[in-house]
Description:
With 363 residues, this protein is mainly β. The chain has strands spanning 2-9, 14-20, 40-48, 54-62, 78-80, 89-95, 101-109, 112-121, 124-125, 129-134, 143-149, 155-165, 172-175, 181-186, 196-202, 205-206, 210-211, 228-232, 235-242, 249-255, 266-267, 273-281, 287-295, 298-307, 311-321, 331-335, 338-346, 354-362.
Amino acid sequence: MASVRLNSLKSNRSILHFAQNFTWLCLLTEDSQVQDLKGVERDEFTVPGGKDSMIRFSFCFFIFAPTFLAAQVFDNMVEITTPVGINAMDPALFGTEDGGIVLAWTEPDGEGFAVKSATLKDEKWSTPSTATSSSSLFVNWADFPTIAAFPDGTLGRGTPLDLRACSCCQTSASITGDGTVLVAYRDRTADEIRDISIVRRHNGVWSDPVNIHADGWEISGCPVNGPAIDAQANNAVVAWFTGADDIPTVKVVFSEDSGATFGTAFQVDTGDGVGRVSTLMLANGEALISWVDWTDDGEALMLCRATRNEGCVVRQTITKHAVSGSFNFPKLERSGDTIYLAWTQPMDAGTDLSTVRMVTFND
């Protein structure tokens, strides 16, 4: 049986935690087709194929243009070249107080894998640093690193929050303007109902778990599809996936009182949601939600702008792919006025490779 614990973290350097969820990375061979990307410049890029061989690929510098719908969440996106190595995957993002953005990821290293990080500041990446490298790291689509950077301090003691939780679904946490800590996670009842719950730390006291919406999803195994939460001022947003009644659905719900209560839950997807959500609360009280959809042509990475009274008011397809592999768990983050979205990008090179891609929007 799984439990949810929270460690309070303070440090003067980036702290990496090797947690749930991984993806696969790919580059394009010369005869591969660029899918769902317009305005692409292609340059030759040589990738090591083994100890004594080299494989020639076409490395793509993407001048990013999304699939246009009747309306867009953002009219302009800028793709940023990431400092990752060959076959990198599973990005994690953290915005720093000085306007930087920290990227963490995994990539092959010798006979094993390494967890690495780098910081983007003033349009320049720092030299990637390695947090750990080992042949015993458990690398798969459902395990990924998480990163946070703090100005000072120590690692606090762990606090049990719920002794019965879904074993493999990732948790998510945020802090409201009044200092209330919110932790969202997939709960688990004795009857195997696995809906989303929240616990709050207000005025130094942790609350009991509270279910934010009664989906009633009964499932005997873990769906590996946890919620995402974010907050600004006294506003909070939670996005999640449910398969209740055998209908896969991505949902969103808002709070206006630092997570004490939540309003009406709205459906985010249009009927083919896979989940793997990320979310950001915006200063105007709206929220961004990213998720993965199934389409007739394969996976689609989606973005939605939502309001507390209407749910999703506009959706946008960021990119699609129809090859082996997956976007897995894309990540939204902000730093200053800039919003970042990073994901693992599968490519059709016939080699099960992928890369980490990142775009920016200005809110």
